[in-house]
Give the backbone structure.
Amino acid sequence: MADAIDQHVGGRLSARRHSLGLTLQEVARAAGTTLQQVHKYETGSSRMTPARLWSLAKALGVDVNYFFEGFGKTGSDVAGDDGRGRLKTG
């Protein structure tokens, strides 16, 4: 099951790919992975390693922070978050 952050990052990946008019294959080739894996990232069904996130950001011409923009704007999106952007402590 996809986590909220994985879905958000995947959605941002998909949006950037579409805005550039790139195919899954083109992004996969540029990032050194497979078309199937990029699809899994976009749907949030596979979690990206930091190294893969970095290579995708480079391939898409964005900073790594791009993928996280807008996350957490609607309250508590991350397990363990107290709703104010801080980790719960007890």
The first helix runs from residue 4 to 20.
